[in-house]
Amino acid sequence: MIRISNRIGAAALAAALTGCTGTPAPMITGLPPAQVSANGETEPVGTGRADAADDPAIWVDPANPNRALIVATDKKAGLHVYDLTGKDIAFTKAGLVNNVDVAGNIIVASDRNDGVNAHLAVFRLDADKPAVTALGRAAAGTGEAYGLCLKKTAPGAPVTAALIVKDGTVRVGTLTVEGAAPSFAIAWEYKIPTQSEGCVFDGDTLYVGEEDAGIWQLVPNGNTATARLVAPVDNQRLVADVEGLATIDHKGQRYLIASSQGDNAYAVFRLPGVDYVGRFAVAAGAFGATSETDGIEAVAGNFGPDYPDGIFLAQDGDNAPKAQNFKMVRWDRIAAALGL
After folding, report:
1. How confident is the model at residue 238 (pLDDT cuts 50, 70, 90)?
2. Which of 22, 45, 75, 158 could share a disulfide with 54, CB 3.0–4.6 Å?
3. Is the predicted pLDDT of residue 25 greater than 80, yes or no?
4. CA distance 92 to 7
5. How far apart are CA 286 and CA 283, in angstroms?
6. Peptide bond into 321 cis (omega under 30)
7. Residues 44-74: pLDDT tens digits?
8. If pLDDT is split at 50, 70 and 90, which confidence band does 293 have?
9. 219 and 205 in contact (C-beta within 8 Å)?
């Protein structure tokens, strides 16, 4: 989400309120990021002239780990499926779906079609056709569904989902897909102070981005969680809004990546200590730069000569003159730029 509060300074706001004109304060920038360029991009989402593309996920073929597809949301229309050349190969209407993740052939998205009661929209991916089939919606309590992520588990295991309500309420539980309709049983809940969205699991630990404040680490503790702010917005590593979160394994080490939306960069932290290791930006190149990024995703693996050591995906908030889309970057080039 992009908010005016992060784009203008107090003096400029005061001038606007009094009817005066003046030069807006410069955009806040953090520590200088390493520069990388995109290696590919998806075709634009279907909704043009709007903030529509939001969050990507990556499906890896369990029968062929060198094959992957991209699932991504047009938050005003539905779900797109892209191949790794960026070609749009399937679409399903789903209305207002925001964040998305995959577990096996199950796709789950946060469903904002009801702004009063939260739901998880559940789909099945047939990667061979390809096609996406709606399986129904699982009720997930009151509030507007916003953020969503799934815990990575073995094939056939129960699906653990984290739903982030727009006010910062975090609900984690088991999503059951069998039967007439999907259902969601909440195991624990925690309230983050203000608006939150991005999330990612690292084992049982959940990381959540509070947009104006930073990254929270939530460890389950009965029907709630032990929580601490582990990476605050400091205008050095992170510049508000803190948006998408992702993890990736590299040379036996796991890293947490965060979208520092306020200055069009991405911060990287070493887990489990959440130790800061650097920042990067996707600069102008053959496929353009990224800016005002919402959702991100990353996955390690050999996906052919274009992505031999993994993929990083980022929503691009300004893909003019076309509608918004998602940029793809070779992970090995990011790792090299950061000296990982």
Report:
1. very high
2. 75
3. no
4. 34
5. 10
6. yes
7. 999 999 999 999 999 999 999 999 999 999 9
8. very high
9. yes
pLDDT digits (tens, 9 = 90+) for 196-217: 999 999 999 999 999 999 999 9
The pTM of this model reads 0.93
